[in-house]
Amino acid sequence: MRNRRSELDVEAALFWGLVALLVWVPIPLGSNRAWAWAILEDWAFVLLAAWILAWGLGRAQVSDAVRKAWPAWILLAAWIVLQAAYLVPMPPGWVEALSPESFRMQSLVEELGIHRDAMTLSIDPQSVRVSILKTLAYCSVFFLTLALVNRRSRVQMFARVLVYAAVAQAIYAVLMHLSGVESEYFGTLIVHSDSASGTYANRNHLAGYLEMTLAIGIGLLIAGLSDRRADSWKKFFRITIEWILSPKMLLRLSLCILVIALTTTHSRMGNTAFFSSLLIAGAVGIVLSRFATRNTVLLLASLVAIDLFIVGSWFGVEKLAQRLEQTTVANVQEREDPAKYTLALIGDYPVFGAGPGSFYVAFPRYRPRSVALFFDYAHNDYAQVAAESGLLGFGIIGGFVVLTLGTAIAAQWKRRDPLMRGMSFACIMGVTAILIHSWVDFNLQIPANATLFMVMLALGWISLHHDRHPVAGLAGVRGETG
Question: Which of 105, 213, 293, 390 is most buried by its number of CB atoms within 10 A?
């Protein structure tokens, strides 16, 4: 009993350490500064090392979700090995055979009289080192989520804290926007008057963060739905009052605040991705779930109706609609141009890419003179991953995401537990939203959003594999009967 209590105490401490990390990462400009992502990496590595030590001492256990996510671990391991391969010194002949364009670019230094006995697959090894550390941190968060969010109470608490932390972010963003101020935040000037951006330098990245946290909140609402019917007006009023006084009402108000903030970002693709993903995830849930209640359909309908036409109309949906109406071919082309020019880069580095994190080094050569701006990112996550890691890397990381989505969809079909169905819905909706948004933006290049994206993927595995073998007599409350 004492060992079990010690195990719970250690896991609880690590669990809250993980929660604190996830609350922190959006605050310093989405952790998109070298010092900020260094904090993210160190924090994640310390938590992982502490968990491994606790496991070695018998104070922590490997959860079912960790064990059964072995296909994901294979793909993530392949992704890490591939990134490490870009740093391995190779004979120039090997590099020429594997990546002719990388060999050609690195051979240019010989014109300066510099001879190189060894080369790497990447044209910018330092960027690869930075990228590998980020990747290891994201994988650590993915593992820690599977390992520590291993009880129903923790799943609920984990999801609620993420939603309420996003509410605090949303309130700050909306208030700063309504005040119309310009302020310097962590050394970066943020103009709040045009749109809400909160603690992010770019409003589109706040929109990406809100898309995912809204998905978690909606998943919690779905988990709390019941199918009780009011046989009389007395019972109807009693059920209504119980709902108003329950935590569900606070959660519903929280979602309204998040929608307000999302609307005031005036992010066209952010809002489009949110409502599109809500409809897609809702359709998947209704079609595939054998245990969905009629209240699920009513909830999804009310989310669209109330949030878009009532809440949104008070807080800037007209301005957002105006932005959508005024979107011209030139506006679309401005977003598409970096990705379009990146296709030539991909063509030169088809298999392995130019190296993780090297886009800003490789892209200027492919940018026409008519484009005067400097691009750190491709404004399209798909194009950037393919340019930096080649079609091989794109296939590996894409397979990981598709496999996880398939796992979450399977949970919609198989799981009876409302909480697990809610978390699978959150995974499907949140991941779909980012996949849509990624066509014209680079949310997955922002450490805070990439970290939360890994959490969303972890929820997909948890939703299928958590607590599938309940104690006898508790089936239907703690888990499944088959």
Answer: 213
pLDDT value of position 213: 97
- Cα separation of 379 and 356, whole Å? 16
Tokens of 299: 């909830």
| pLDDT band per the 50, 70, 90 thresholds, residue 250 | confident
436-462: b or e for each residue (b if 16 or more CB lie within 10 Å)? bbbbbbbbbbbbbbbbbbbbbbbbbbb
| CA atoms within a 13 Å half-sphere pointing along the CA-CB vector of 122 | 25
* pLDDT value of residue 471: 39
Rounded distance, CA 348 to CA 360, Å? 16
In which element (H, E) is residue 377 found?
Answer: none
Short-list 349, 33, 393, 51, CA closest to 187: 33
Per DSSP, helices labelled H in 57-151 are: 64-68, 70-85, 92-98, 100-107, 125-148
Where along the chain do its domains lie?
2-87+122-465
